[in-house]
């Protein structure tokens, strides 16, 4: 873990900086990701103190958000969605993403959240302890089949939180 990365909740006046960072990190999908961010931030699922920026030498170089996200069929599990996750392109593969997520997931655990789901690159998220979600009994909705099911992953923040779960993540939950 890098010791020069500061993780803190985003300030409202930093949203424009973060939007520029997200556009750069997601290229042609950037506007869709920004729309999702807007929907989450406007919803009851938004948790302002789990909406983070990462700084190195006082400059915002990363962003990620954890929000409430129910697993249908397992509503008793206090689950979160990790999305989006962005690191400035020229600083990728330097440990910033891993450091910011380790700190953020610990903050979610301290707040009592039991698990996190994410869709992303398994090579990266497996390093953080995420596993393919269907190994926990969590599938994507039947109306939104994933081309690469290995990209839907989950992580228990509290040991055994996903034991015996059989449920679905509901993608149409958000319009973006």
UniProtKB/TrEMBL annotation:
A Gene Ontology molecular function term of the record: acyltransferase activity, transferring groups other than amino-acyl groups
Superkingdom assignment: Bacteria
Keyword annotations: Transferase
Stretches of the chain forming a coiled coil according to its record: none
Domain N-acetyltransferase: 5-158
CDD domains listed in its UniProt record: NAT_SF
Protein name: GNAT family N-acetyltransferase
């Amino acid at each position: 873990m890098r010791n020069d990365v500061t993780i803190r909740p985003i300030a409202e006046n930093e949203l424009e900086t973060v939007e520029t960072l997200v556009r750069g990190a997601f290229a042609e999908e950037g506007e869709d990701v920004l729309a999702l961010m807007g929907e989450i931030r406007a919803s009851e699922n938004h948790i302002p103190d789990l909406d983070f920026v990462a700084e190195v030498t006082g400059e915002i170089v990363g962003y990620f958000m954890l929000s409430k996200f129910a697993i249908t069929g397992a509503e008793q599990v206090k689950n979160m969605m990790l999305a989006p996750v962005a690191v400035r392109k020229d600083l990728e593969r330097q440990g910033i993403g891993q450091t910011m997520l380790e700190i953020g997931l610990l903050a979610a655990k301290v707040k009592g959240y039991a698990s996190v789901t994410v869709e992303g690159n398994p090579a990266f998220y497996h390093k953080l302890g995420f596993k393919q979600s269907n190994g926990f009994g969590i599938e994507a909705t039947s109306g939104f089949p994933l081309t690469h099911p290995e990209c839907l992953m989950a992580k228990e923040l509290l040991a055994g939180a996903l034991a015996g779960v059989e449920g679905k993540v509901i993608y149409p939950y958000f319009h973006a």
